[in-house]
Amino acid sequence: VGQWAIAIGAPFNLDYSVTIGCISQKGRYDTGMSSYENYIQTDASINPGNSGGPLLNIHAQIIGINQFIYTGGMSRGSIGLGFAIASNLVKQVSESLVQDGEVVRPFIGVAMQELSSELGGQFGAAYGVLVSEVLPGEAAEKAGLQNGDVIQMVGERKVHSPHELLLAVTSYKPGDKIQLQVLRHGKNKSFTLVAGQRSNSALAKGGDLSNNYGRQGSVFNQLGLRLKVEDSQLVVQEVREDGAVAKAADSDGGEIRPGDIVHEVNRIPVKSVTEFVEALEKTQNDMVVFYLERLNPRQGTSNRFFLAIPIEGKKAE
């Protein structure tokens, strides 16, 4: 953090543009952009057209791939909040694509939750990730893990949150042996499990763990929405001005606004970003159908409505 960062790209079609800033923070996640998130935050100017370009350090080494910016909804350009996918995650994905033709993710088969200070006191753990459910027939059950276990280490890596555990597991491949250090009833235990393989439809009850969306991912990118789960509901955080949702707002069909709750996509109930993206597979006639709820805090009421958003049928990634 604080070291130089150099972004290269074609902002607003201005080829081979170079901007300079610093690394504002590492390991950013929970942005709603992806299930597997490990972002570098930078104030090097990143604008539309920079996405896919490299983020370099002062030695011209690639440390990330520029992906998106926060604008606060007031600007299309940079306000100093840019995000790049960390190069170690990019390397994992690219190697998997070359070797397997797809991104293959390991799966240990647990639902997880944050270990709050209150829960930590009850389970006698200062840190770790609480196992809320062990999925039947999966690797964790076969290895002997139980509900209520607190996973503290994956291999040689300490984990303090479900996100850290998820990234630690993704450094392995299906079939690899993974060593887990677990606290159970105040006693330290060690388990070795053989990682399974996550199917594209696999969902763990503890969070958003599916990836590799194919065409659905392309449609999601077109829509231009940033989403986040709040109180077990999927909420719109930001509507990008260059996305299909923002363009549709110029018509007479209504609009999607930040704060709207997404209940259904293509008549399929959704409560997570993963379920949202998977529901896009049911898109027909190049039209995504939303069922939304908009709250009116002043009046203490809300209204629900359907909204159809047109997309391009052959959007290139």
Task: Describe the model.
With 317 residues, the chain is of the alpha+beta class. It has helices spanning 87-100, 117-123, 139-143, 162-170, 215-223, 244-248, 273-279, and strands at 4-9, 17-28, 39-42, 54-56, 62-69, 82-86, 106-107, 110-114, 129-134, 150-154, 157-158, 177-184, 187-194, 196-197, 225-230, 233-239, 261-265, 268-269, 287-296, 301-310. The protein contains seven helices and 20 strands. The longest helix has 14 residues, at 87-100. The model is unreliable at 200-215 (pLDDT under 50).
Strand and helix layout:
Blueprint lengths: L3 E6 L7 E12 L10 E4 L11 E3 L5 E8 L12 E5 H14 L5 E2 L2 E5 L2 H7 L5 E6 L4 H5 L6 E5 L2 E2 L3 H9 L6 E8 L2 E8 L1 E2 L17 H9 L1 E6 L2 E7 L4 H5 L12 E5 L2 E2 L3 H7 L7 E10 L4 E10 L7
Antiparallel strand pairs: 1-2, 1-4, 2-3, 3-6, 4-5, 5-6, 7-14, 8-9, 9-10, 10-11, 10-12, 12-13, 15-16, 16-17, 17-18, 17-19, 19-20
* Strand order, largest beta sheet: 1-2-3-6-5-4
Question: Which architecture name of the largest domain does CATH use?
Answer: Beta Barrel
Q: Please give the count of helices.
A: 7
Low-pLDDT parts are 200-215
Quick structural overview:
With 317 residues, this protein is an alpha+beta fold. The protein has seven helices and 20 strands.
